[in-house]
Specification:
The complex is a heterodimer of chains A (about 325) and B (about 325).
Chain A: H1 2-14, H2 17-31, H3 38-63, H4 71-87, E1 90-92, E2 97-99, H5 103-127, H6 132-151, H7 172-175, E3 177-178, E4 181-182, H8 183-201, H9 203-213, H10 215-220, H11 225-251, H12 262-272, H13 284-303, H14 308-333
Antiparallel strand pairs in A: 1-2, 3-4
Helix pairs in contact in A: 2-13, 3-8, 3-11, 3-12, 3-13, 4-5, 4-6, 4-11, 5-6, 5-11, 8-9, 9-11, 12-13, 12-14, 13-14
Chain B: H1 2-31, E1 35-40, H2 46-61, E2 65-70, H3 75-87, E3 92-95, H4 104-112, E4 117-120, E5 132-136, H5 138-152, E6 157-163, H6 169-182, E7 188-195, H7 200-213, E8 217-222, H8 225-237, E9 244-246, H9 252-259, E10 266-268, H10 271-288, E11 296-299, E12 302-304
Parallel strand pairs in B: 1-2, 1-3, 3-4, 4-5, 5-11, 6-7, 6-8, 8-9
Antiparallel strand pairs in B: 10-12
Helix pairs in contact in B: 2-10, 5-6, 7-8
Classes of the chains: A mainly alpha (about 325), B alpha/beta (about 325).
Chain lengths: ~325, ~325
């Protein structure tokens, strides 16, 4: 009996952000008749998907006591690479021809680029021992600069592709629906499911927690700390790449400033989900709930017509408030 | 003994560059350098890139050397860039400034050092410091846009307004002009007003959310084209192509969207023209000691509609 109670208790305590989420849902449902409609909830979750996917990648990084400030810039540069390949093609000057690739090839190349930026982070941190904050701050600037250089500051429009060039189909990622749900929701679900399995059910997941809990102990236990660090930044870069593609696909346009400050929303979601920035504590499910909290706030406050300035104040207060409650109760339990 | 030797060596090493610097100063003291410094916000917005490029092209044409830099809307970085221009003895500074108040001291410092400044696109809160302040008439332009929006709406129906970054004075001026015009039509109802911070992604998500609360939405009027293009993408995704969207700026992708009959209209800010005017006035000031024009000059904006969209290039009429 006692263990049973403890289990329910731990589940509730583990995902404390769910209390904040339910509270917000009740408040907005009471204040706005449109809030609980199925079409609004669909839109809401679709908007959450962007931040949730970034936050899932960020969870792995934060579990190792790292941080990835470069995700917004990586999302931006990934979108720009896809936009460049679709809108402009690859210009082979000596041959005097322009090659247009199939949309799926564009997606693969863009994602590889995103992973390479993740690898740069991983290399700097695991190999050259640059603190994660500094290494990913550097990549934040490098990736943003790369996006601006590639586009010369301009937007790549009309990413629907042209039948004559055989490069249509890019809008499927962000703009299509499957079984009545927008594609970004499915992508988020898939990413989250895989991440949950990897974090909770695989040896790699256990090593991630081990590195974050106590790096020295993990090393003594035979965990290759550098390899684990490398992999978490690859995962984070990959997730950022997916987000960049979703946004470019949704807008049908790639803008070099896309993703500015996204890293802060992603970190907020992870922290709201109960993760510790010191590493070793956190969970994918918690992160998803954290992302939902931020998304519900944004959606509900817009429906109520609350001004941008108040939205920012309220968002900040909710983030800090939720973590304060979290700290207080975890202190009591330890 | 060795230390003394070393010290005299060091002395020699330091005096040589100092001497050559002095020589440089003498060379350029009379004829001076022929440099015009162009300082604008980040070129990640094609608008600022267009004005910087236009100013640089005109300055080169007039025989000037060009130093073009971006202050990224950071007043401190702007002050450093102005210091660089002064220390390189620039003939003039063409500046799209980083803040109406934060800029005054830097421009005065340049003036005191004998380097005249010509402001473009944004004014600052002081007169008699810069030689010229040439801006697009945002109020007139936004009035044009709002008039066209009202006509496209058939003077009736629900609409939402997407405002730019609310700390930016241009966002406020445009919003005010929209309100002045549209509030005169009793059947035009503004059902929401939200800031999308000039951002395409934010405008996309906001429009999707606002569509939930306002199913009968008939129009979206935006403080700039980036937000208008975001709103348009959201409406397209929702299959609401009939909703009227009007933007502001005249960016190339918006103009081409107007031409294709998607975006209802936009208002072109003649960024390239303003930049060229500033360089020409700088040239006149350098050669004749005055521009012969008032300090504050407002250049009218132009309405871009489906009928005339073909006449516009990158922030300018095609000549």
């Amino acid at each position: 009996m006692k263990t049973q109670q403890l289990d329910i208790g731990t589940v509730l305590l583990r995902f404390r952000a769910i209390i904040a989420l339910l509270l917000l849902v009740v408040i907005f449902a009471a204040l706005s008749p449109e809030f609980l409609t199925s079409s609004n909830l669909t839109i809401l979750i679709k908007h959450v998907a962007i931040n949730a996917i970034l936050a899932v990648g960020m969870t792995f990084v934060i579990l190792t006591a790292g941080i990835d400030l470069s995700v917004g810039s990586i999302a931006g540069v990934t979108g720009i690479i896809a936009g460049l390949l679709i809108h402009q093609g690859i210009i082979l000057e000596p041959l005097g021809i322009i090659v247009f690739l199939d949309a799926w090839v564009v997606v693969v190349i863009s994602l590889i680029a995103a992973v390479l930026f993740g690898a740069l982070n991983g290399l700097l941190i695991a190999k050259f021992r640059v603190p994660p904050f500094v290494a990913t701050l550097g990549t934040l600037y490098v990736a943003r600069g790369a996006a601006l250089l590639l586009s010369n500051g301009a937007t790549f429009p009309n990413l629907e592709g042209k039948a004559a060039l055989g490069n249509q189909g890019f809008q499927i990622i962000g703009g299509s629906s499957l079984l009545g749900l927008p594609m970004p929701i499915w992508i988020m679900a898939l990413v989250a499911l895989i991440a949950w399995v990897v974090a909770d059910k695989t040896p790699f997941g256990r090593r991630v927690y081990a590195v974050g809990s106590n790096e020295r102990a993990a090393k003594l236990a035979g965990v290759k700390v550098g390899a684990v660090q490398m992999k978490v930044y690859l995962i984070s870069g990959f997730c950022a790449g997916i987000v960049g593609l979703i946004i470019a696909s949704q807008l049908g346009a790639a803008h070099p400033a896309t993703g500015e400050t996204f890293e802060l929303n992603a970190i907020a979601a992870v922290v709201l989900g109960g993760a510790s920035l010191m590493g070793g504590r956190g969970h994918i499910v918690g992160t998803l709930i954290g992302a939902m909290v931020i998304g519900v706030l944004a959606n509900g406050l817009v429906l109520l017509g609350v001004s941008e300035f108040w939205q920012m104040v309220i968002k900040g207060a909710v983030i800090v408030g939720a973590v304060m409650v979290d700290q207080a109760s975890s202190g009591r339990n330890e | 003994m060795t230390t003394i030797n070393r010290r005299s060596l060091l002395l020699a090493a330091t005096t040589v560059p100092a001497l050559s610097l002095a020589a440089c100063g003498r060379d350029t003291g009379g004829a001076a350098t022929n440099l015009i410094a162009i300082i604008t916000p980040s070129h990640d917005n094609p608008f600022f890139k267009a004005e910087a490029d236009a100013a640089a092209a005109r300055a080169s044409l007039l025989g000037y050397e060009v130093l073009s830099n971006s202050h990224d809307d950071d007043a401190y970085k702007q002050s450093q860039l102005i210091d660089v221009a002064v220390s390189r003895k620039a003939k003039a500074i063409i500046l799209d400034n980083a803040g109406a108040d934060a800029t005054v001291a830097s421009v005065r410092k340049a003036k005191d050092a004998g380097v005249p400044t010509f402001l473009i696109d944004r004014e600052m809160n002081a007169t008699g410091v810069a030689v010229s302040q040439i801006v697009a008439d945002n109020f007139q332009g936004a009035t044009l846009g709002a008039d066209e929006f009202a006509q496209l709406m058939g003077e009736a129906g629900n609409y939402v307004e997407l405002v730019g970054k609310e700390s930016d004075s241009n966002a406020a001026i445009r919003s005010q002009a929209y309100d002045d015009v549209l509030s005169q039509y009793p059947d035009l109802v503004r059902v929401a007003r939200q800031s999308a911070n000039w951002s395409q992604t934010e405008a996309f998500q906001l429009t999707e959310t606002l569509l939930q609360a306002n199913g009968d939405l008939k129009g979206v009027i935006c403080g700039n084209d980036t937000m208008a293009m975001g709103a348009l993408a959201a409406l397209k995704a929702a299959g609401r192509n009939e909703v009227i969207v009007v933007g502001f700026d005249g960016s190339p992708d918006a103009v081409s969207s107007v031409r294709n009959g998607e975006l209802g209209a936009t208002v072109l800010q003649p960024a390239a023209l303003i930049a060229e005017m500033a360089v020409e006035q700088a040239h006149k000031f350098i050669t004749e000691g005055e521009t012969g024009l008032p300090e504050k000059q407002a250049v009218p904006c132009e309405l871009v509609t489906a009928e005339n969209a073909g006449q516009f290039g990158i922030f300018a009429r095609i000549k």
